[in-house]
Amino acid sequence: MNIKLFQQKFFSAKPQENFKKIKESINNLGTNELGLFSTFALCGNLPQSSLKYLSIQEEIGVVLSECIEISANKNFIVFVPEKENNSLILCYVSNKNLQKISFQTTSEIPVIDFEGQKIGLTLFGINHLAEISKEISTLICFGKNSIGIVDKDAYYQELSLVSKKNKIPVVFVDNVGSAANLLYPGGSFCVDESTNSGIFFPYFKDFSQNTDIKNITASIQKETISSIAFLQKALVIGIQDYMFQRNFKKVVLGLSGGLDSALVAALAVEALGNENVKGILMPSEFSSDHSVNDAVDLAKNLHIEYEILPIKNIYKQCNTTLDPIFSGTPFSLAEENLQARIRGLLLMAVSNKTGAVLLNTSNKSECAVGYGTLYGDMCGSLAVIGDLYKTEAFEMARYINREVEIIPENTISKPPSAELRPNQKDSDSLPDYPILDRVLFAHIEENKSAEEIFAENPDIESLLITKVLQMVANCEYKRRQAAPCLKLKPSSFGIERLMPF
Amino acid sequence: MNIKLFQQKFFSAKPQENFKKIKESINNLGTNELGLFSTFALCGNLPQSSLKYLSIQEEIGVVLSECIEISANKNFIVFVPEKENNSLILCYVSNKNLQKISFQTTSEIPVIDFEGQKIGLTLFGINHLAEISKEISTLICFGKNSIGIVDKDAYYQELSLVSKKNKIPVVFVDNVGSAANLLYPGGSFCVDESTNSGIFFPYFKDFSQNTDIKNITASIQKETISSIAFLQKALVIGIQDYMFQRNFKKVVLGLSGGLDSALVAALAVEALGNENVKGILMPSEFSSDHSVNDAVDLAKNLHIEYEILPIKNIYKQCNTTLDPIFSGTPFSLAEENLQARIRGLLLMAVSNKTGAVLLNTSNKSECAVGYGTLYGDMCGSLAVIGDLYKTEAFEMARYINREVEIIPENTISKPPSAELRPNQKDSDSLPDYPILDRVLFAHIEENKSAEEIFAENPDIESLLITKVLQMVANCEYKRRQAAPCLKLKPSSFGIERLMPF
Fold first, then answer.
1. In the Cβ-directed half-sphere of B9, how many Cα atoms lie within 13 Å?
2. What is the ipTM of this complex?
3. Residue A179: its chain B contacts at CB < 8 A?
4. Which three-class secondary structure string do you get for B293-346?
5. Chain B: residue nearest A351 by CA?
6. Which among A47, A55, A344 has CB closest to B449?
7. What is the pTM of this model?
8. Cβ of B35 under 8 Å from any chain A Cβ?
């Protein structure tokens, strides 16, 4: 029995656009092949609100009809969104006939007949895979959730067990590419543990492959890739797809000489090419010499254009204008934020003037504790590393530098600082990042309370844990206005994690 | 049979805080009374993510135990949130016993016995009210949704029909107050259409009342209030509760001389008192004389403090700093946005320096079409009129001026302008607001497509409709970073309406 699996990038909310690719794939299908498209191949991942509109539903209906129209002697599976309950309907199109299957948590696994075989169809996480009926000779499982939901091997681990236990081949069809800030890794596969064979699709790429599912020859090996390399690849593709889907070419970002902006610049150059990335250096009176030097070194290493726009004079003028209110008051958070906001304002001005998209460079640790200025360094269309903890950002910087120094060594090794007041260091207000990130990870990714975190980390002071969790709760209001981040984890900030504010 | 209905304001995610009020109410309950607390009285309206934390669940469990502890010879109903499916569990506490009821869409209406009567219990919108079992002698319905879900009379209209049809008294227990930007109006009631009697609770106030449900004496009349007055009251309470729950006292806002900022200032003064509201006037070289004069007149009418901070010098200095990039380019959107962002930056500086909360003054029409500057006039902690269309803002301004001119007549009657370039008018880029708002309302509140809107509004050019809908779609990315707005309608912008961006 032959399947042909299409792992294809999609556009969200543009069924007609997606149909162009799907049509070509259908036309190339052999009559004895079952074509498999991923869950979002046709419609993209549509937010629930958009399904309230008759127009998008009609458009999807039209495209589904067009699929059926060209299905003479063809067999394939596509999905359309279900209007009501944020789920999906599987459409099995066979020689101009359409069979619709809606998934329910409690029901048995739906089955279709193809070439005399009973094929079980599941949506990952919806059907229970514990009991597979004996009549099912092949199981096809479709992925629905974005990269954030599981680590890259989790699907494979679970499904290879299903194959082993039931002695049947199992196919996993994943989405690939992105819908706004949601990332889908691809990495579809067909495995048959009874013959120890498998075919593994690459991550983050359009790829299709014909497979005799009853006789898999392991011609494509499983990609071995470290977690940090996988995340790095995800972020690069995330930037690429975000820009491509919106017809944007160029990005701009602020270069502070620090780690976060250096990392985002390196990722952007890999995603878009050095000719499409511009750095803006905005030193203030509190900036150290090395800030500018490190940023210039980075720009040179990356071969990107950069501009130096000192903020001193604007800052001075702002203070003069604000004199009726600021006069006689001591230097405070207001003045610190003012500098960050002048930078945000300059970056947005460059973005507006040149048509380049402003990339935000905040990391997840600082978003978590509110160590960032709303409308200042929190500006930007896309928070590239907003779901990466600071310690992960360090790890990724080292990974990027694995062969040649791209991110200046001094940027990685110097103590992190916002440089908004004389001799300021992050460690003045925050615990060291390795400690901070352990607390944050336990709280945000594992939903643990202060008591639970302390019980598991007796080396961290309980007062410190309580203080960090209070900071997280107190700045939920900032995160409600933060730039959307490329989602890498289940509890990415944004609509996936809403708390009282 | 006696009920005592407690319509009480609550704190979100602070069960211990809420318990103080509930405890007092329980202690005042007579032994033959059934006490009714609203769905969020105990826990507040908790976002789903927060229920993943064991700590909040434990805290809720403790408070529920405390309720049971003090329930000797008392009978009452409170609710706790259900962890899994964003629903609620009804807790009937009777003489130290607890009966839990979980609501399902398909099941029959749950019933409890009290003083020999069968009392049906429903959660509004969950149970079908078409068929009420004959054994039920009283129906109690609890509200769950915020003000945005229905107009103020919808509950009453539906439930009085239920009372009429089944010849039983019907009680509606609504939440009152706010959870962040969600507003609950109160207006609980007990009606018995078989005796044409009813008791109606006030809107937006703590109120409790003992009622012999089998013999309602219509001692409290239904409040007659126009729609615009109701919305105005809702916004005032929204500001008040937002500030009170966060221990904030003072607000600041920019006064442009235009309608939106004038309206928000008037609402803020009614909510917080004139001593807690500060206006900042930030004229530019493009500001007309009347802008400053109208804003000053407003500040004088409202007896609020104001400060004039001209932005000209900062704007000039920004242009000088940006010269390496701006030099030789024509005046464009970048320069317009720059002015708006300088204002945002000054307002945030005043907010940071003085501890006053910045109120955002954007209306729903401009949020819809993206006629606002991200990090500029879109700054602020709370978008007071962000769910009010411009035509509704005009109506509310007239309502506020019904007895005495508070908002200067010139502010209401002059053509709206952003004043970011010479002689700019909103009507240069947008259709007149009455037309625009008809299109927007049909699209956003009624989910209609361009074709449907044109079919129902043949007097509006179809090209214009298409253009407006395209503007709405194109600026979804801006709304993802907008200040949360006080929610008045089902499709308020924010997490209630997410579209592809």
1. 18
2. 0.94
3. 500
4. HHHHHHHHHHCCEEEECCCHHHHHHHHHHCHHHHCCCCCCHHHHHHHHHHHHHH
5. B334
6. A55
7. 0.95
8. no
